[in-house]
Specification:
mainly alpha; 6 helices; two-stranded antiparallel sheet; about 240 residues; 4 strands
Length: about 240
């Protein structure tokens, strides 16, 4: 029976006109695709395993961060400040060399702020406001700090611009901006009350805030955008509705 097509030409069930060469190509494509299916299924299983492994590693990392903020970080900062308070900068330099300079800098920073607060109380309101602006700007005080002798024997070399620290945090952070300076976290009124106990408690707070702001939050902010974007989208959609 004549099909109406030239010799060597046929029509596929889908109505596509095929010749002999086309039929061979379709057949080869079919065989190749069929053979690839088991491999693709196996690779999908690997992707699932990899996905679970990445989720496990991410959860583990978040637990480490949570532990740092709630337990390990405060205890570690307290330990560093305790060594400085009891035995001084030189002892801290021997026991924890990477952290000695940043801790000593913070101690001097808080001490200078406490001294400025005491000086401000003895002057008029106008002079007190001027002293506060001087401390906020990180400029040296007109008078040298009246540092207690017990503390003077414990600190390291006198550091300039106490409200600022090097970008590399005295070697705690790698980077090409070694000549750049960054500001230390601001002190609240409670932190500038006189006394060694307040001095070292405030120093621990500043140290933790500095670690968080400079070493942790830049990375945590990235994943926060990732995991919070859908929630914000939903909230925004509710507001629009």
């Amino acid at each position: 029976m004549d099909s109406g097509y030239p010799a060597g030409v046929c029509q596929s069930p889908s109505g596509v006109q095929l010749d002999y060469v086309g039929e061979c190509k379709v057949h080869q494509c079919l065989i190749h695709s069929t053979k690839a299916l088991p491999t693709l299924v196996a690779e999908m299983q690997k992707v699932k395993i990899l996905h679970r492994a990445l989720q496990w590693e991410m959860c583990r990392s978040l637990i480490v961060v949570f532990d740092w903020y709630t337990s390990t970080g405060p205890e570690f900062a307290q330990r560093l400040l305790q060594i400085h308070q009891q035995d001084g900068y030189k002892a801290l330099k021997l026991q924890s060399p990477p952290f000695a300079d940043i801790v000593d800098h913070i101690v001097q920073y808080v001490q200078e702020s406490q001294d400025a607060a005491r000086e401000g109380k003895r002057t008029s309101k106008r002079k007190a406001k001027s002293a506060k602006r001087t401390v906020a700007a990180g400029k040296p005080l007109r008078k040298p700090p009246t540092m207690p002798e017990t503390l003077r024997a414990k600190i390291g070399p006198v550091r300039q611009q106490l409200s600022q620290v090097p970008y590399d945090l005295y070697g705690l952070r790698d980077g090409a901006k070694k000549t750049q300076m960054i500001h230390l976290p601001n002190l609240v009124p409670y932190h500038v009350k006189p006394g060694l106990d307040t001095l070292y408690t405030s120093g621990g707070y500043i140290l933790q805030e500095l670690w968080s702001r400079e070493l942790l939050m830049p990375h945590l902010a990235c994943i926060d955008k990732k995991f919070s974007s859908s929630r914000r989208t939903v909230d925004e959609a509710k507001i629009i509705d």
